């Protein structure tokens, strides 16, 4: 086992990793930018090192500062969390070259899965179903139009290096394609420095279903069931739950097997997520693989009883998985609400600020992952995730009720959040029945905000 792990991240995920390290009796080194000098992860780690100014490019994305900090403080491994450098193959390679274990898959695997067009091609060649579309990247708008004609409109143009819903455009008609192609490409260049695009058929009203997988260095690969992440705003997740109401046992088995096949095709090691879209007729298609821990991992931790950070660390240390597929159970239901410092009434505009008063929910089956505390400043420099409220109960109805009361207990004074919107969603009849798809929020946003105005809480 490792002696000391540097956590190349901040916020709730840095705190989350520190918790498991303490339980494993592994020391931790926190890193922080000058904007984060008073942050919670800094207080909780064994040791903390300032790695630069507020701007992420100069601190949390500064590879040499991170590697120097790790070496100077005697670390033997680095946990990247999510975001920042977690899916940067060069950083994974550099860690190895410096004699530090990167807690995640190899640089080569990250590289291959990070190019979504290449990942698609690999999956297809291994018999994992992918959305109908281009074989790989397209050469330009003419080829995209040819493919769109063949598979039929509407289609999605997607950036090979895309993420966070950026570099993606829906095209409904041939005459719109050239303009939307240029827009998607420009956004992809601006966000990812890579304008390569590929084409997928747009699956109408799909559900976003992802499978958590674990793979060790001995070649064992298991899946831990699914998370339904269909409640999204602007292609970004807001509420996640497991199990999904959309899966029969047979479908769950088939998708779980496809996820394991995908991980094996990639030569994967560590915790990872295989994302699918599920169509109304029960057909499902691989869309991408995330080669890191996900924000929504606590949902899976609740239903399986496993600590995914612990599994990641064990795998990186060369230990075998602590479970076999036949021992994994999905026990009860779990749900997560993301509490972002955003104003849903203003297009989810980020609205960071000072926490004037904080009260977090508790009680049986309630977990809150956050780095907030009374009087702290939610920094405008980084992402707007303020807290994750996660609940677990034997049935979905009890889970819903528990989440309602957890959100009623939550008090964050100082800035607007998505908590009220999440609370309203929990009363929406289709959501209660589990009948929703990725279009749910867009479709119901106006109605939900109307309820809010009428004081329905
Ligand atoms: P990103 O990496 O930018 O998050 P993804 O490929 O994971 O992009 O897609 C983000 C979301 O867009 C998915 O969760 C899903 O809701 C939607 N989506 C992606 N591909 C398709 C598709 N082919 N048809 C319909 N919806 C899709």
Automatic annotation (TrEMBL):
SUPFAM superfamilies xrefs: Glutathione synthetase ATP-binding domain-like, PreATP-grasp domain, Rudiment single hybrid motif
GO MF assignments: ATP binding; biotin carboxylase activity; metal ion binding
Keyword set, alphabetical order: ATP-binding, Biotin, Fatty acid biosynthesis, Fatty acid metabolism, Ligase, Lipid biosynthesis, Lipid metabolism, Magnesium, Metal-binding, Nucleotide-binding
Broadest EC class assigned to this enzyme: ligase
Domain annotation Biotin carboxylation: ranges: 1-446
Record note on quaternary structure: Acetyl-CoA carboxylase is a heterohexamer of biotin carboxyl carrier protein, biotin carboxylase and the two subunits of carboxyl transferase in a 2:2 complex.
Protein name in UniProt: Biotin carboxylase
